[in-house]
Amino acid sequence: MQQERGADLAEQIDVALHGLCQPLTVLQCRLALGELIGDPSAMRDAIRDGLQECARLNQTVGTMREMLQRAMGNTEDERTR
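The structure corresponding to this sequence follows.
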């Protein structure tokens, strides 16, 4: 039972980590383009878009944190039984 939960949690975290790849790549590319173009407008756009990607990343990290907290809570509950 505990092994199944561990495997399920590992799969969920794997999916969430995979979900981080796209926003990280977009963030990196947008900032690099803003720097490459170099004018103030491009930099403002890169910062705005970068902040949007950071929000996406934080949401995914928050989801992962919740999954871990639930799993840790379930583990604690099983230990006290």
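The radius of gyration is 18 Å.
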